[in-house]
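yo, Exodeoxyribonuclease 7 small subunit is done. seq:
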Amino acid sequence: MSEINIESLTFEQAMKELETIVTSLESGDVALEDALKQFQEGMALSKHCQDTLNHAERTLTKMIAPDGSVQEFDVTE
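structure:
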């Protein structure tokens, strides 16, 4: 995973990588050094996913008018 640029991953790709790491760590069959590396990668993936969700939330907030109606949104913003 360390060769992959996490920032270039889609949300779904990052979640899949994160799930793989969690499964590996939960198995208990990982050497300590490898577990630490996987944990660090998992934290970076988690941050990337959270940032992606925050961006999506901000986009939706801009699309919803104060009265609750949907307003047009310029995707270049």
